[in-house]
């Protein structure tokens, strides 16, 4: 004969007791492993604070990245940037055999030419200074941009002067003047808008006729 015994059990005993023996969650030690339902009111507040802080940090990082990218584009990569125009002017100087000859000597190499901003050529920190420049708007409403920097080769040194102009209607910058001045030598013109259109400001002539 088999005896069947029954035991009274409460419904709650069928489920494991809800554990709360986890380390107390704070804003600084929460790693997200503990389920939200197991957190106390204070711990939930701590987690919410931490997540809000993390969100703000991420947003700040995104904004900083955007700001740096914008600055890099406008100051370095954009055609309107001083660095971009500086690089173009240096390339024009190195492409000119007359400029290379003045700075490096006959048969010299363009790669021996160094270009740098204001300051003494012997001081490495001065050589890394920003390129000097200024801007203005003329009576006609055109934007004018003036840049100058130093160039140096094994046998000579000089100053490159740049004058850019952009019409008031907008558009790209155009070279009005790009010239190299080396002491003891005549100016080397690499770009001269006035000469291109037959204007001689010193003599007041245009197309061979004296106008002023």
UniProtKB/TrEMBL annotation:
It comes from the Eukaryota. InterPro entries: Tim21, Tim21_IMS_sf. Keywords: Membrane, Mitochondrion, Mitochondrion inner membrane, Protein transport, Transit peptide, Translocation, Transmembrane, Transmembrane helix, Transport. The keyword Magnesium does not apply. GO terms for biological process: protein import into mitochondrial matrix. It is found in: Mitochondrion inner membrane. It is a single-pass membrane protein. One of its GO terms (cellular component) is TIM23 mitochondrial import inner membrane translocase complex. Essential component of the TIM23 complex, a complex that mediates the translocation of transit peptide-containing proteins across the mitochondrial inner membrane. Required to keep the TOM and the TIM23 complexes in close contact. At some point, it is released from the TOM23 complex to allow protein translocation into the mitochondrial matrix. Belongs to the TIM21 family. This is Mitochondrial import inner membrane translocase subunit Tim21. It comes from Venturia inaequalis.
């Amino acid at each position: 004969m088999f005896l069947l015994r029954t035991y009274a059990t409460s419904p709650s005993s069928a489920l494991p007791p809800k554990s709360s023996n986890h380390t107390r969650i704070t804003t600084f030690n929460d790693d997200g492993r503990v389920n939200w339902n197991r957190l106390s009111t204070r711990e939930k507040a701590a987690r919410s604070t931490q997540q809000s802080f993390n969100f703000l940090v991420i947003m700040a990082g995104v904004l900083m990245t955007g700001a740096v990218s914008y600055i890099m584009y406008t100051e370095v990569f954009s055609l309107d940037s001083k660095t971009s125009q500086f690089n173009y002017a240096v390339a024009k100087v190195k492409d000119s055999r007359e400029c290379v000859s003045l700075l490096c000597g006959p048969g010299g190499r363009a790669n021996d030419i160094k270009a740098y901003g204001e300051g003494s050529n012997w001081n490495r920190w001065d050589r890394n200074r920003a390129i000097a420049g200024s801007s203005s708007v003329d009576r006609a409403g055109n934007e004018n941009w003036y840049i100058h920097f130093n160039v140096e080769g094994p046998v000579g040194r000089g100053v490159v002067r740049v004058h850019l102009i952009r019409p008031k209607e907008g558009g790209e910058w155009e070279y009005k003047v790009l010239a190299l001045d080396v002491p003891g030598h005549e100016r080397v013109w690499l770009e001269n808008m006035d000469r291109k259109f037959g204007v001689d400001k010193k003599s007041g002539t245009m197309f061979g006729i004296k106008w002023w």
